[in-house]
Specification:
Blueprint lengths: L1 H32 L30 E9 L7 E10 L6 E6 L6 E2 L5 E3 L7 E8 H8 L5 E9 L11 E7 L8 E4 L2
Antiparallel strand pairs: 1-2, 2-6, 3-4, 3-7, 5-6, 7-8, 8-9
Length: 186
């Protein structure tokens, strides 16, 4: 007897609920059809305020090459023996590179063992690399008669940033220096 009353009560509740749901759906469709605006939700908003900011990109300065000199046999300027390049940098020895680029060849990085650093003075190191004829010939295969670029760069610690390079051009005559050897800025 109680089960019959519950079923009858549930059926009468459904009889009221279904028509109300149908009426709400029909009202929503009519409002949409006739362009009647719906109430905005709390989740949307507009704001007329704006902001302007400037952004400055950080750049790394190029290293400062302070000298590039060619050493010749007995100082006579005829037979090439080595080239010495010096530069200054605020970066420690683990964050500087010297690369040798032969004409039309593949660039080769000079080992850090061939670069000496002085103790920093006011936070600036002085670097010196002496590249002998033998070392350069091992790196380049053919040293004579070409213009080799010596490029110095800095590496920013804990990043992939590399500074612009500072270069010097080493020219050794085809006759082993008989016609002159130079190391000059581009």
């Amino acid at each position: 007897m109680f089960a019959e009353r519950r079923d009858a009560g549930a059926r009468s509740g459904r009889r009221i609920l279904y028509p109300l749901a149908a009426l709400a759906l029909a009202a929503a469709m009519l409002m949409s059809t006739f362009g009647i605006p719906r109430e905005q939700s709390d989740a949307t908003f507009t704001d007329a305020e704006s902001t302007v900011a400037s952004l400055n990109a950080a750049t790394m300065p190029a290293p400062n090459v302070t000298g590039c000199t060619v050493q010749t046999l007995l100082g006579l300027g005829i037979v090439f023996e080595s080239v010495t390049i010096t530069w200054t940098s605020s970066y420690d020895p683990g964050h500087v590179q010297l690369t040798v680029r032969p004409p039309g060849g593949t660039p080769v990085q000079v080992s850090s063992q061939n670069i000496t650093a002085s103790a920093p003075v006011s936070g600036v190191y002085t670097y010196t690399a002496v590249l002998t004829q033998g070392l350069l010939e091992n790196l380049l295969r053919n040293l004579l008669g070409g213009r080799t670029v010596l490029a110095v760069t800095e590496l920013r610690p804990n990043s992939s940033w590399i500074s612009p390079e500072t270069t010097r051009t080493l020219s050794i005559s085809a006759l082993g220096g008989l016609l002159g050897n130079t190391c000059t800025a581009p």
